[in-house]
Design a protein that fits this description.
4 copies of one chain form a homotetramer. By secondary structure, chain A is an all-alpha fold. Helices cover 71% and strands 1% of the residues of chain A.
Chain lengths: 271, 271, 271, 271
């Protein structure tokens, strides 16, 4: 390519992929607004009454957004430093999914019969993940989660074990005549109970079942309450201890001096 | 104005806007009591049975409180250092709203037909915000919230993203025949589930739906349980480490030295 | 009184009110067991089926426990250092309430018509508070709660304000035709929602109502999730910082030395 | 036994009971996979529709797993250092329970009439506990829980006391005509409310009942919210204090000195 084209590529890259320049930041803000607007269109289109009244308008707007996102995707592919890397990255795939449904519906009209229009709406909703590229905090969050993933997995597997055993226990005690028709159903109920959600679509009817349910509820709520209480108690004790492990300067009677200080903070006398 | 009027204005200001004098504090306490009483009247007036039996009494009391608050508002306007600033501030607007409904109902009788009496009750309930002027702790709370507002917004937007995607997933899996009629409805259900509220007005009926619901419930509850567990584990580890590995220097009596130290941190003596 | 009586009084005091001797501790354990057994009798007596079958037995056992607790109460009154102080203290009143219902039913048979037998069961259930005398940890808990009472009251009043305003808002939006018949009812619903309990006996039917409900659910759950997240983030940052603000001894290359140390912990060299 | 047998026993022990060698770790991984697969069979077998269609296959797989676990149990018994200790330990009993149901059903066919097949499924589900042998973190968790058991018991007993008293109060206020038929039922409702689960199978109908319920909901949710808020406030205060009031000594460059200090803590120089 000629020098001018390279320069165009670089300028586009700075505009699209970075937010160092004012233009880059404006591009980002505009894109965020467009993503949010397109999501509103998808959400609103799913409501029967609104969809019937405004079908043409929503259809037109959807094509408009698809066109905009297609141009954006093409631009990204064009000026990316490494096209393959972008195209296969998380954001690259999301950007592709963002425009795919509308084209699929266009080029494969018989697809409507195979894939429910609801699925196409779901794929369009995935556009929301494009937003995560614009927030540093999300990568912080992702890193924090990744760092703790072992602890989270161990905790989760322990909860699943408890929920499986308690659920099966309820399956034995209550039985199919009270709605606990199988172990998976009973485990689903156990999860609604231990996570304190409590839908109420399935509830224990026998006295022993209610007793076991009470135990599970106390376990699920206690897992939140007990550590919180322990941490608060520790904090109180530390504050009190700090208030108590302090010495007084022999010269100027100042207190609040730590035992480890060498010189009095107020009069300079050697401690 | 004459010197006596200025003095009256100042004395009123000290009484109404500050709580430095005993009279100022008594004024505050009296006003708090009046606000609470007027709220009770509004609340009680909304209960059909009570409203029918005691209509005249409640009506009279409401006019009494409106009169009192009108005098208070006029007094504040009169002795405020900067009238415009007070009238447009949060507390100034609340004080105006506190007396407005009754006057609106009086001067614009046809308003009854346009604005539901329930709306007028709501505006009267806003008087409760007058109370926040009297508690320092509320401004602490407001400052703390304000300081963390970026973190809160990021967290909230992340939760909204998850709830939108999972909700739409349930909309696809369960569909209108099971109550999930549109993406907004499904997202509302997703919020009731992830916040562990679990009304039960809408519940998954398909097995895949119950599986997705289980995941969401574990996510919502886990967001509370996992950090609490991690924090408690950290605290235990720190306490145990501190308790098990501290020695005292034989020479200078410094404690808080780790068992593994070879030399005292303060005097350099060999341990 | 003679010397022997004084000695008996002292010996009874040591037995009943203190737990320094082995006999005193045995007395305590026995009393705890009796209290728990008497509670079981009251609880079991409230179940229709069991009460009908075993009425005589339960009646007899109730009289037995009342007799035992009467003897205990009389003994406490006899050997207490300050009778008036004991009789008017929390524990003194609980001990009196523990025996009162049965005597009331005996001496005032017409009372049955006035006070529901359920109320008498409730007063008997208050015996459970006798247990709190035996656990030091409960007084720790009570002290901790008492120390934080100002913060708790401020927080509680703030929650009540929010719940009142949001509840009234729902009362306006949903209205009596959807179950929100008055402000108290709407506030009750707001509490079930913000505390994430979510009974489901009352649920929003309008779209705006569901939107407001979603906000409230996120507020109620977020009040638990946001601080927990902030605390966990702080802890991670502190751990990372501690790992980063450490100097190395120039002589022996040991790290993990705090910046404030004067002498290297490993080789004794001056830092 | 001959030397070769001892050597075989040792080699088996290293394979089965330890995970120091690659073979030992492979054995562990294989066994975990087999345990999980066998659990899936039990879970799937409980679903009516699937059980009817695939009965023979599931029956055969169940026998296969029982055979594998029998061989494993026999091997463990053979090469254990102390057979009695293993056979009576938690893991030994779990391993026995894992294979027992199928043999019971085989040797005692009339057992089917006495013990519900659901109970046999429950005993098979206990195999999940075999997994805990393979995760170090579970023993950490068990130790942590064991260390805090006194605090947990005190907290739990306090919650049970509150739940019993509040539940009985609701039993008095609402009564059998609204579903609160006995103290145990009312206590079960109190637990669903205080743990914020809120099934909704039982709800207060009277105004006083709704008021008491509101108090309980605020208590249950507040037990999570108040300590979390206090801890976060403490952390903020510490951070702010630290950030706002630290100066550096001009002489010896020590930081972490408070603004209000007059003399440096380390070198005695005047600030």
């Amino acid at each position: 390519m000629t020098r001018a084209a390279h320069s165009l590529k670089d300028r586009m890259y700075t505009l699209i992929f970075t937010n160092e320049t004012a233009a880059g930041r404006l591009f980002d803000k505009t894109l965020i607004a467009l993503i949010l607007l397109s999501l509103v269109i998808v959400i609103v289109d799913s409501v029967e009454q609104i969809a019937r009244s405004f079908h043409s308008l929503l259809f037109g707007l959807e094509w408009l957004f698809t066109a905009i996102f297609t141009v954006e995707y093409a631009a990204r592919l064009y000026c990316a430093k490494n096209r393959r890397k972008y195209a296969t990255s998380f954001f690259g795939l999301i950007d592709l999914l963002a425009i795919l449904p509308t084209y699929l519906a266009l080029f494969f009209p018989e697809l409507h019969a195979l894939i429910d229009v609801r699925v196409l709406r779901l794929i369009r909703i995935f556009r929301v993940f494009k937003l995560t590229a614009y927030m540093q905090e999300y990568s912080h969050l992702a890193n924090a989660l990744s760092a703790s993933r072992k602890k989270i997995l161990v905790f989760l597997s322990f909860v699943l074990m408890v929920v499986l055993v308690m659920g099966t226990l309820m399956y034995v005690v209550e039985g199919p005549e009270h709605g606990f028709t199988s172990i998976p159903i009973a485990t689903y109920w156990a999860i609604t109970t231990m996570t304190t959600v409590g839908f109420g679509d399935l509830t224990p009817k026998t006295d022993l079942g209610k007793l076991i349910a009470s135990t599970m509820m106390l376990m699920g709520w206690g897992t939140l309450a007990v550590p919180t209480g322990i941490v608060t108690a520790e904090m109180s004790r530390t504050r009190n201890h700090r208030r108590h492990s302090q010495v007084t300067c022999p010269e100027c009677e100042a207190d609040h001096l730590d035992k480890q200080d060498h010189f009095c903070r107020d009069c300079g006398a050697k401690l």
